[in-house]
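U., I forgot to send this yesterday:
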Amino acid sequence: RPEGRRLRGARAGIPPGHPHRPRRVGHAHGQAFGDYLAVVVTSWAAGVPTKTPEACVADWDSVSYTSTVPHCLRRLDGTKHYPQDLRGEVHADGEIWSRALWDIRGALGDTKASTLIVEAQFAFAPDTSFRDAATATVAAARRLYGAGAANAATRAFQARGIL
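Result:
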C-alpha cells in the first residue's frame, strides 16, 4: 500500500521524493536484478560477447542512441557508491546494486552467484532497502554455500557502501 510506504519513509525522517525513500531504492534493486539477469542469461545462451565487455547491458539496442563506444544502455561494472551516487532514478541507482551482484559473480563464479542472487529475491518486497536486500543476499549465500560465499557477498556490498 502506498500509504504504508509513505509512513515508513516519514517515520525515518525521509521526505517524499527523496532518493533514500525505501520505495525508490527497492525499485532500483529490481531494475539492477533485471540488468544482471539480462547479461548472464545472454551469456549462457549466446556465449560471452567478443565485441563488447560482458558487463555491457543491451549493447545491441543502445547503438542507436549512445555516442560512447562500446554502446551500453548501462553497465554492471561501474564505480557508483551508496549513498553519494543516488539520483532518485531507478536505472541510475540500480547500477550501484548491479555492480555488487557482478562482483559476487566474479568472486563465486556464475552458477553459485546467480543461484544465490535469484534465491535472495524471494526475501525482497517492493520497498526493501538496499541494506536489507544485501543482508538477505548474504544470508542466502551462507545458507546455500557457507561462510566463504557469505563473506564474498558481504565484501561486494561493502565495496559499494551498502553494508
